């Protein structure tokens, strides 16, 4: 990166970050999960597509994926955007999508785990896992494992591939990961907001452990995007929980008195920084807020290397295979 080193803030937009790191994005192949319109994953894909060689966008609804592709291509006619159907709540669905990516000749420079399940009632996936944890952690873990050879193929003497986990500052509101409940979900003790907090804790721990285990071959980061009025905040099943947290008011609209909200462009900025800021090269495993390193903001239970190692081992047992470099 040449020129003046940019300084980012709460109000920095994804476009501004992408413009600052256009040289780093150029020629890169990027996969982003959860890219429906009116979401930060879509905004991330939109700004990256202006410079990248290839942007693979994923979602479980093929029709919505096509709408996202059309919207990006309308703004960036020369963008190379590939839609990939991916159901993160299904281990078989993850394997199917990974097969498609692995069948292509291109390496993968950046993998961005943006997709998340809506906060809502207890539900089990086809694999008998709690839905939020399956979608937010177990599916992304398996996808990373299956695409690791693609990521490693992108490495050069000057470039280290990256994996980015979109977590949340809300991880600190929970007790950390309950390892017993991961493999044995219990509807009697389930609380939707707590399940969300735990899933976001897992994202942070996964970034720490992935960076450690890869021994410098892959750099992983996690982040808090900010509080944003995305599609998830509009889902009917999530409203009551978000109101209980004070994020939404009694009318179901954003509470601007208690919290400072970000726009979608501001909300996607930190993801773009985590994926491309070269100043992070020597800070693997870091957690970001407002497009800058904020490791001091991570709760103790979500920065504990013992918890990170345990989460890795438990997740390997759940998916039935080892993740070894």
UniProtKB/TrEMBL annotation:
> Which InterPro entries has this protein been placed in?
NAD(P)-bd_dom_sf, SDR_fam
Please provide an example of a Pfam family that matches this protein in its UniProt record. Answer: adh_short
Give this protein's Gene Ontology molecular function annotations.
Answer: oxidoreductase activity
The record's listing under Gene3D superfamilies reads:
NAD(P)-binding Rossmann-like Domain
Q: Which UniProt keywords apply?
A: Oxidoreductase
Q: Which family does it belong to?
A: Belongs to the short-chain dehydrogenases/reductases (SDR) family.
Query: What is the protein name stated in its UniProt record?
Result: Short-chain dehydrogenase/reductase family protein
Q: What is the lineage of its organism?
A: Eukaryota, Fungi, Dikarya, Basidiomycota, Agaricomycotina
């Amino acid at each position: 990166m040449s020129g003046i080193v940019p300084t980012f803030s709460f109000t920095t937009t994804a476009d501004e970050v992408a413009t600052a790191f256009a040289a780093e994005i150029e020629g890169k192949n990027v996969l982003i999960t959860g890219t429906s319109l009116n979401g930060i994953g879509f905004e991330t894909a939109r700004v990256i597509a202006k410079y990248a060689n290839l942007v693979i966008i994923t979602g479980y609804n093929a029709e919505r994926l096509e709408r996202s592709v059309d919207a990006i291509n309308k703004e960036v006619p020369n963008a190379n955007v590939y839609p990939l159907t991916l159901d993160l709540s299904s281990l078989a669905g993850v394997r199917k999508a990974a097969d498609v990516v692995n069948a292509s000749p291109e390496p993968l420079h950046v993998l961005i785990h943006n997709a998340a399940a809506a906060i809502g009632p207890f539900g089990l996936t086809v694999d008998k896992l709690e839905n939020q944890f399956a979608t937010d952690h177990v599916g992304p873990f398996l996808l990373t494992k299956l695409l690791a050879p693609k990521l490693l193929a992108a490495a050069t003497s000057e470039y280290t591939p990256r994996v980015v986990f979109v977590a949340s500052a809300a991880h600190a509101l929970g007790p950390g990961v309950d390892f017993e409940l991961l493999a044995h979900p219990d509807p009697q003790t389930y609380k939707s907001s707590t399940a969300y907090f735990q899933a976001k804790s897992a994202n942070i721990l996964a970034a720490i452990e992935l960076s450690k285990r890869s021994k410098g071959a892959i750099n992983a980061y996690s982040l808090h995007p900010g509080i944003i009025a995305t599609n998830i905040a509009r889902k009917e099943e999530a409203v009551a929980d978000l109101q209980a947290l004070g994020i939404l008011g009694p009318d179901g609209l954003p509470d601007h008195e208690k919290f400072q909200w970000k726009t979608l462009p501001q909300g996607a900025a930190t993801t773009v920084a985590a994926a491309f800021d070269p100043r992070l090269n020597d800070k693997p495993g870091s957690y970001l807020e407002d497009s800058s390193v904020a490791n001091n903001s991570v709760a103790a239970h979500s920065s504990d290397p013992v918890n990170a190692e345990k989460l890795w081992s438990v997740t390997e047992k759940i998916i039935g295979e080892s993740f070894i470099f």
